[in-house]
Amino acid sequence: MHVLITGGAGFIGSHLAEAYLQRGAWVSIIDDLSTGSVRNVNHLKANRRFTYVIDDVCNRRVTAELVDMADVVFHLAAAVGVKLIVERPVHTITTNLEGTEVVLDQAAKKSKKVIVASTSEVYGKTTVFPFNEDHDLVMGSTARARWAYACSKAMDEFMALAYHREKGLPTVIARLFNTVGPRQTGRYGMVIPTFVSQALQNKPITVYGDGKQQRCFGHVDDVVKCLIALAEHPGAVGKVINIGSQHEISILELAKTVKDLTQSGSEIVFVPYEEAYAAGFEDMMRRVPDTTRLADLVGFVPETKVDKIIRDVMAEQQNDPRHSLDW
Question: Fewer C-beta within 10 Å: the chain N or C terminus?
């Protein structure tokens, strides 16, 4: 089996590549390194079944060649992280929309299965919990740059489903909820690696807003298992599927847990959203997935507790000092 992973030098992509190599597959990745890093896949380079291309997925010729070799394509290349999204909205929109169109177009020519990574952000301001895949999506104003990401990923979903319905392309849409683990950087606003890095350095742990926001964090190893299982399940084709844990924790409680587990002397400080991002920034106060569809299809959902996730991130940052600079 030959697997192509766009954004394969990123956090999730590198774990997915590693998992498929362990299963005996051939793996190709393409990544422009805008948010990914070669060091995420350095340990895979010696494997003769692994190849990597440093290029933009929007390069149609290169992407076409890689798709031709693949049996299945995981499209993970995208703008990621709230900080990047707010600071570079043009990059966010063009990267997400154009990249997805190129991948789907090339895959459709050879009818290659595509798993498109989407995000819980598409639920926007939805207040019906838990989030079900068939719920309405409630977006904020176009004047708020934060919603550009949600809208662009929603359009990715529309595009993937359109290719499935009109051209018969086998597509699967995976809506990921706060995936965390080793190799994730805090550079673009990812909260757990940021908190851990701050705590290990005894710097203030910065909680944005009042800390009452609630999130569900899924371990990357669990998420990768779900992605692989969905790619192999014929019943997933043409569907949107939530992937995430249902264990909720407030951001303030998360900060306290990180402080306790790291035995840090850090002070927990609150930073107003307008100082962290921009005036008028809007956040979702709660995000929890309905994982019924995932469980019905693959028989399991991410269950790793947040303490384990934090300890894994801690271990990496303690073993590799470079990660402490990422946030």
Answer: N
Neighbours of 219 (CB within 10 A): 23
User: Domain count of the chain?
Assistant: 1
pLDDT digits over 235-274, tens only? 999 999 999 999 999 999 999 999 999 999 999 999 998 8
Q: Which of 12, 47, 150 is closest to 89 using CA atoms?
A: 150
Q: Does any domain span residue 132? A: yes
pLDDT in tens, 16-60: 999 999 999 999 999 999 889 999 999 999 999 999 999 999 999
Residue 46, domain member (yes or no):
yes
The encoded tokens of residue 44 equal 């895979």
DSSP 277: S
Domain that residue 129 falls in: 2-182+218-245+288-303
Domain assignment present for 258? no
Q: Which two tokens stand for residue 92?
A: 């966010």
Torsions phi, psi of 222, nearest 5? -65, -45
Looking at the DSSP bridge assignments, the partners of residue 269 are 206
Beta bridge partners of 214: 250, 286
d(CA 93, CA 166): 24
Question: 250 pairs with which residues across the strands?
Answer: 214
Cβ distance 189 to 84 under 8 Å? Answer: yes
> 93-106 burial string, b = 16+ CB within 10 Å, else e?
bebbbebbbbbbbb
For residues 218 and 287, the answer to whether their CB atoms sit within 8 Å is: no
210 found inside a domain: no
Q: What distance lies between CA 201 and its chain's CA centroid?
A: 26
CATH code of residue 234: 3.40.50.720
Residues annotated catalytic, as ranges: 149
